[in-house]
Each structure stands twice: as structure tokens, then as C-alpha cells.
Amino acid sequence: MQKPSAAEWLLGCFAGRTRAAAILGDLTELAATRGRLWFWTAYARTLFSLTWRILLALVAATIGRQILVNSLHIHIWHTLATWDTSGQFLLNSMGPLLFCIMETLWFVLPFAAVRYGVRDRFVQLTFAVAVGTTIAFFFIPFASLTCAIAALALAAVAAISPNWRKPLSVLLCTGAFGWLAQVAVNAVDTAIISCHPDWWTSHFFRHYGGMMIYRSSLLAVAFVCARIHGLLLVTSPAGRRPA
């Protein structure tokens, strides 16, 4: 079997191997009369047409997560008392875990909404769980516990529903990977700084190394989400989703 070229492999990452081979074959055939410059220009246009929505989704996901982080800082600044773990707030001890879940959800939600549309069941389920988790995390009196229970109940109902079981599986796998990515980022960031005691090196890695590792983890979360969504919720050739 002939090994695909780098140009075909790159197209295959976004269009599938069969479609990529067909596209590249058509471009190569036309390039015989139009020249190599036309070929690479047409190739670039084709690649952009396949990736612009993904790039836009990543930008929206980054903005969504940043809005959440900024809202958290404002909330903590104005409600310091609610973060006292000795207080009466039931969900205080769950704060770090809830924040990790919430941060992943508000990154994945804009990404999936732009890429798959708001009618996608995974997007709708993620939105409902994200809202419930966020209200629970912010310790809003009377609403926090109610929303936490509602989010768990929604997940339980989705688990037994044939129409929502696969969207829930995508959500759970993505959330679990997001949590593991966050743990790995913290561990790697600590290891990098500890292995470079020199002030300049430590300063560089503290400001840029950690940022690059964290951004890479977000890209990994988006990749995992897209792959699992494609495996479980991809539309069949007949236009129906698999049961």
C-alpha cells in the first residue's frame, strides 16, 4: 500500500483518508495544466475551508474559558466569606474539583457549539450540566445544592435514555480527560520549575513553559472531544445518527 504524502495526510486529518485522496487527485490532475503555484494556492484554500470552523471553535472556546476565569476572580473578590472552608456551605470542600469540571465544560461548550451547532445533543447536554455546575460552584444560597442535584439527576436520566446515552458518554470522557490533563499540567509545571533552579531559567519556564503546557492541554481536550464525538455521534451516510 502506497504511503500517503504529507499533503494528503494533512488533508486526511480533517476530511478523512478517502476524501483527501480524491481531493488531492483532482488538484494534481488540474495542476498539470495550471501549474504548481495554482496547485498550492488551491490546496491552501481547500485546507482553510476544512479548518476555519475548527479554528473559530478554538477561539470561541478560549474566550469562553477566559470569561469564566474572570467571573471567578470577581466573585471571589466580592464574596471572600463564602470560600471559608470552616463555614456552613456544603459544597466548599468540592470547590477544586467543581472548578476543574466547570473550566473544562466552559471550554468544551463554545468549541462544540461552534463546530457542531446548538441543536447537537452533546452541546445541549453540556450546556445544561455546565450551568448547573457553575451555579453550584459559586455557592449561591439555596440554588447551589439544588443545581448540583439537578445536574446529577440530568446525568442519571441521560444514562438510561437511548437518545442521550451517547452524548453523555462523550461528555463524561471529555470531562475525565480534562481533569487528567489538569493534573498532568500541574505535575509537569512543578517538575519543570524544580529541575531548573537558575533564576532566569526558572523565570522563563514559570511564565512561558507553564502557559505553553496548559494551552497544549486545552488543545488535547478539544481533540479528544472531537474524536469521541465523531466516533459516537457522527452522522451516517443515510443521514441518521447511530443508535
Task: Please give a quick description of this structure.
The chain is mainly α.
Describe the structure.
The model is unreliable at 85-91 and 236-243 (pLDDT under 50). α5 (121-137) runs antiparallel to α6 and α5 (121-137) packs across α7. By secondary structure, the chain is mostly helical. It starts with 5 loop residues before the first helix and ends in a 10-residue tail after the last helix. The protein is built from 8 helices and no strands. It is globular and about 70 Å long.
Major sheet size, sense and barrel closure: none
Order of helices and strands: HHHHHHHH
Q: What general outline do the C-alpha atoms trace?
A: globular
Q: What's the total count of β strands? A: 0
Return Rg in Å.
Answer: 22 Å
Structural class comes to mainly alpha
Q: Tags for this entry?
A:
0% strand, disordered C terminus, 243 residues, 79% helix, single chain, mainly alpha
SSE map:
Elements: H1 6-15, H2 17-34, H3 36-78, H4 95-116, H5 121-137, H6 143-160, H7 165-194, H8 199-233
Helix pairs in contact: 1-2, 2-3, 3-4, 4-5, 4-7, 4-8, 5-6, 5-7, 6-7, 7-8
